[in-house]
Amino acid sequence: HGHRGNDAVPRFLLGSLWLAAAVEVHTAKEVVAVNGTNQRLKCTFSSSSPVSQQLSVSWNFQPEDLSAHEPVFYYLKEPYKPPSGRFKERVTWDGNIERNDVSIIIWNLQPSDNGTFTCQVTNWPDVYGTIGEVRLRVVQKVSFSEIHFLAVAIGSASVLMIIVVTAVIICRQRRRKARDKSKEKESLKMGEEKEPIPLED
């Protein structure tokens, strides 16, 4: 009977340990990158336990069409590149375990890389924890940089000035023509015949 009581103590301790032992993973929610460029997918973690030799990192990828998850990268004591798949020869480790950084770099991004990358860290005894998710969007061009904005603003201002100047010139010419016509009418009424003025070359 007393045996059962002893048995309950370790279970209780394990339960509280399990609640305390959790790895928190932090990532950017969304990353936008230009087609053909390289992109660092940042992932950091915090653990209630000191970093152990058994720490492992798993990066996976789920395409936008929600087809099966694909392995991207694995780390256990050392980085392991994927032996096959779309990320073979296109992913490198860019983390530093001592700084709780488990980031990777994806090289030569393609539109087919649109999807969600997940970063999972286990640090024994912290085997449970959050999974970091990064949604990657690969675009054809930079959507709108500051230089781009500046160029468009200056361009728009220039076009606007040209339109205004043109409008002013046209208005003036029209007024002049109207004035000339009224003058012509007056001169005809008066019966004054002007001598033709020879044009200078």
Structure notes:
With 201 residues, this protein is an alpha+beta fold. The chain has 2 helices and 11 strands, in the order H-E-E-E-E-E-E-E-E-E-E-E-H. It has helices at residues 2-20, 146-190; strands at 23-27, 30-34, 39-41, 43-47, 56-63, 70-76, 78-80, 91-93, 104-106, 115-122, 132-139. The strands form 3 sheets. A 6-stranded mixed sheet has the order 2-11-10-5-6-7, with no helix packed on it. Strand 5 and strand 6 form a beta hairpin. Residues 2-19 have low confidence and may be disordered.
Short description, anyone?
The chain is an alpha+beta fold and 201 residues long.
Question: Which structural class do you get from the secondary structure elements?
Answer: alpha+beta
Distance between the termini: 126 Å
Number of strands: 11
Sheet with most strands: strand arrangement: 2-11-10-5-6-7
* Biggest sheet descriptor: 6 strands, mixed
Overall geometry comes to rod-shaped
Low-confidence stretches: 2-19
Question: Which key features would you list for this structure?
Answer:
single chain, 201 residues, alpha+beta, 3-stranded antiparallel β-sheet, 2 helices, 29% strand, glycoprotein, Ig-like_dom, membrane, transmembrane, transmembrane helix
